[in-house]
Amino acid sequence: MKWTTAAGPLVTCALVVLAPTPAAPAKNGDTHVIGQGLEQTLDCNDATLIVNGSSNVVNAKGNCWAVTVMGSGNTVIADSVTHDITVYGYNETVFYHGGDPILWDRGRELGMTNRLQQVPG
Fold first, then answer.
1. Do the bridges between strand 75-87 and strand 57-72 make them parallel or antiparallel, or are there none, so unpaired?
2. CA-CA-CA-CA torsion for 76, 80, 83, 84, nearest 10 degrees?
3. CA–CA distance, 118 with 120 (Å, rounded to integer)
4. Strands (E) located in 10-101
5. What is the pLDDT of residues 44-96, one digit of tens each?
6. What's the CA gap between 82 and 50, in Å, rounded?
7. Of the four listed, 1, 46, 87, 111, which is most buried by Cβ atoms within 10 Å?
């Protein structure tokens, strides 16, 4: 008997069993806001909000699964975020009132300044 043949499926099974599951799955139907200088208020509907452009202001009502912001000078104010907030670019602002999302500032990794924080609400 070859041990490599028997060990392969065991390792795969162990990895599947140990993988954590999220508290709630994301919904289909991400919301995209693309442009310059837009001002929008929208319902996140437990889906992902993606903002791409510059100088956009987005008020996201309800719960967002995730928020992703790309470009420069965008502002997002979200009621709550479940999974993560990821920001690319420069001078981005994301404020959220509720939730405990992972904050991932990809712009800061390249020396750019962004603001991601929880605020009372």
1. parallel
2. 20
3. 7
4. 31-36, 39-43, 48-54, 57-72, 75-87, 93-98
5. 999 999 999 999 999 999 999 999 999 999 999 999 999 999 999 999 999 99
6. 15
7. 87
